[in-house]
Amino acid sequence: MTRINKALLMIVIGLGVAACSTPPPAKVEKMAVCMFPDSDDAAPQWVCGAPVEGMAAGAVGSAARSDAGTAFMKQIAANAARVELAQTMKVQVGNMIVQYGEASSAGSKEAVDRVRASVARQITDQTLYGSRIFKSIIAPDGEMFVVVGLDEAGLQNMAEAAIKASMNIDQAAWKIFLAQKSPDELAAEIAGRKTGSAKGTDAGQH
Predict the structure, then answer these.
(1) Considering the entire predicted model, what is its pTM?
(2) CB-based contacts of 47, cutoff 8 Å, min separation 6
(3) Which percentage of the chain shows pLDDT scores above 90?
(4) DSSP assignment letter at 73
């Protein structure tokens, strides 16, 4: 074995020993996925908007600590959550209408947008029938957090109610959508598309 080969062998052996003697990297501490606002305290993931089992649509609300008690705080937090949920529902129901319009060629884009805006006006925090508090928690600083939502049946019922109210108020916008369907049938079909249970065309749409 030449000197060069011996030198290379010693380097390889030395690197191997060094690698074996290197201590394992320090264990990296996993950070909490969700934290309470302005805090280093971990919070349940739903506080940051993660899905909640059994809830098809929802929103988080909060209320500052109050001497009026937890029941009062929960009511304030729930009211705030319903306002946010109404905004979420305007988007979701609007998407149902757009999907239905695209799948069935029901009217022009202008007509679809007009219908979507009409339905959105019918959805407020006061019309979220069936919404309820799914979870609640009090943060270390005393702030109350709740998540208010609708289950799948509640979501469909609310969507149908908003669509039917829009049909009654803005009949001209809906005229082209009705085609050969009754208002009740069309409202149920559009709302059902959220879960892929629409009656009629493209039932698998989600």
Answers:
(1) 0.70
(2) 34, 36, 60, 137, 145, 147
(3) 43
(4) H
